[in-house]
Amino acid sequence: MYRTFYDNMGCQEEVESFVPRTGMSQCCPSGYICEDDLTDELGGVFVCVQNLVECGDINEQTECAKEGCFWIAEGDGICVSNPRDYSCSIYQSETSCVLDVWNVGAAGMGTEVCGTYFVVDSQGYIIPQDTCRCDWDSVKGCRLGYDVKPDIYSGTPDTFRCLKDFTTGDCIDGLQRVKWTVDAIDGTGVFDFGGGTYDEAKFNTVLKAAGCETNNVGVDRECGAPIIRVPGFSLFSLIASVGIVTLIYAFKQNHKD
Fold first, then answer.
1. Is-above-0.70 flag for pTM?
2. Tens of pLDDT along 205-229?
3. I want to staple 102 with a disulfide (CB 3.0 to 4.6 A). Which of 79, 83, 140, 215 is the partner?
4. Spatial separation of the C-alpha atoms in residues 24 and 8, rounded to whole Å
5. pLDDT tens digit string along 110-162?
6. How far apart (Å, rounded) are the C-alpha atoms in residues 1 and 255?
7. CA–CA distance from 114 to each of 56, 125, 156 (Å)?
8. How far is the C-alpha of 236 from the C-alpha of 233, rounded, in Å?
9. Rounded to whole angstroms, how far apart are CA atoms 136 and 144?
10. What distance in Å separates the CA atoms of residue 25 and residue 16, rounded to the nearest whole number?
11. d(CA 147, CA 156)
């Protein structure tokens, strides 16, 4: 295993004939490119270094790839340094939306809520990571979708699916204004909009906690930073907390014995 920021041959995937900025396959995170870091006397030691090229100034797909940038969207397309700054709306057809080759439905704009846990009126809710994906609608196009469901339940759980569409402004002085619209669909139980068990007050509270509210005013974020955080913590943190409590309990029980 290579540390591609430090070890030679790692980011060039062990290809001795590697030439940077030619479109050859490389292993570097977004915003970085596999190049000679020029810190050694012999040269030819390739590691991941920050890509200083302005990807947004490139308007040709082949050149975009050569410079270590990413070409996304359909039609004219755009060249970007980090596809994670974009949302599902980059896809203009059902096929591309469902395929989501840039993985923005799982790791793109707005997905910071995925895999999180929060509590409303003593009831815990989760947004399962594996439910986050790009959803296609013939009228509203491709949008980010995720499920909201209780962490503990019996019978049929009270659930709904949130669909979000983002609008972003320009990145100015390190800040970017982001707005979004939402639709909540497929409600069950107290979230069944037309059912006899529908609880509007509870539903609205959970919508807000799950980040599923339209925001026409927008929020300013640091360019590339998460947009919102649900008022809770990750499922990993929840599991870790339970584990710690269990260990403390077991430790005290052993000492009693």
1. no
2. 999 999 999 988 888 876 655 665 5
3. 83
4. 16
5. 998 999 999 999 999 999 999 999 999 999 999 999 999 999 988 888 999 99
6. 43
7. 28, 12, 22
8. 8
9. 9
10. 12
11. 14
